[in-house]
Design goal:
globular, 3-stranded parallel beta sheet, alpha/beta, 6-stranded parallel beta sheet, TIM Barrel
Length: 293
């Protein structure tokens, strides 16, 4: 459940993809700097962060809890597994049912031996233009866990690809699209794909705001204006998906508050209204996860 206020739909308070990527920058272990930037987010109205750091991404439940305590931001933590080549070895040896039972246990009985339940399944991912057999195994387990718990599923699409296929998979497996967030759609470079997903009932995440090296924010802002004109923003959520220390202000990066300092004003310049921004940052996440009254 969410607190009243803004929610960032897809972040990683701490994450480590550095070994497989051979890039030390991809290890977020900058605790003090994270606290400082999250405090800036709190001042901007952020009250919730959906942390989709899956098992195998060096998820650290206690680290995240400490950040939450120091910033007063409600951080929803995740169960599940990412994508190849970032899957733990036991994903290759355990059965689908065993993986599902692990997720169900974390959703209902606590993560890592702690009396704290996961609040979302994710981010479960597919590779560039494909779902590998091991990734399908994770998706199959996630579907079982979802049907047992009704937990929200948050997905990764590599550069926005394979999203329509993910949607088809969930529909075929009788998953309610309104309980699924299909990620990274602001990178897909195909507005028609986004419109199709929304019309199928799925939530879509514009969750790589600030990653202009992949796709410019100006076009993302224009797309949001187009979706607003078509009355299709009821399923759109926003985030930055920061996974590198170099994205932090202390390293000269954009920082988390870029969303509020730069991107939101840019959206307004293109005609996105305050009502639409509130919908994407407050109302839509509350509809998906529920809100504490």
């Amino acid at each position: 459940m969410l607190k009243e206020g803004i929610t960032l739909i897809h972040e990683h308070t701490t994450i480590d993809l550095s070994k497989i990527k051979n890039e030390p920058d991809c290890f977020l272990d900058c605790f003090d700097e994270t606290v400082k930037e999250y405090q800036e987010l709190y001042a901007s109205g952020v009250r919730n962060i959906i942390d989709v750091t899956a098992i195998g991404m060096r998820r650290d439940v206690e680290y995240v809890n400490k950040v939450s305590e120091l910033t007063n931001i409600n951080i929803i933590q995740a169960t599940g597994f990412y994508k190849e080549p970032f899957l733990p070895e036991y994903v290759y040896t355990k059965t689908v049912d065993e993986l599902a039972e692990l997720m169900i246990s974390e959703l209902t009985s606590g993560m890592e031996g702690k009396f704290q339940n996961a609040g979302v399944i994710g981010e479960i991912g597919t590779s560039l233009n494909e779902m590998t057999p091991m990734e399908k195994k994770v998706f199959d387990a996630a579907v079982i866990a979802h049907h047992q718990t009704n937990a929200v599923i948050s997905t990764h699409t590599t550069l926005g690809t394979y999203a329509l296929e993910q949607a088809k998979y969930f529909i075929e497996n009788k998953v309610n699209p309104k309980r699924v967030i299909i990620g990274h759609q602001d990178l897909c470079q195909d507005l028609d794909q986004i419109i199709t997903l929304i019309k199928l009932g799925f939530n879509v995440a514009f969750d790589t705001i600030g990653k202009n090296n992949y796709f410019p924010d100006e076009i993302k802002a224009q797309w949001l204006k187009t979706l607003q004109d078509k009355n299709l923003l009821d399923s759109v959520c926003l985030s930055l998906d920061i996974t590198r220390k170099s994205n932090f202000k202390y390293r000269g990066g954009i920082g988390y508050n870029y969303l509020f300092e730069v991107f939101i004003p840019m959206c307004k310049q293109y005609g996105v209204t305050d009502e639409s921004i509130n919908k994407m940052l407050v109302e839509n996440p509350q509809r998906i996860f529920g809100v504490l009254k």
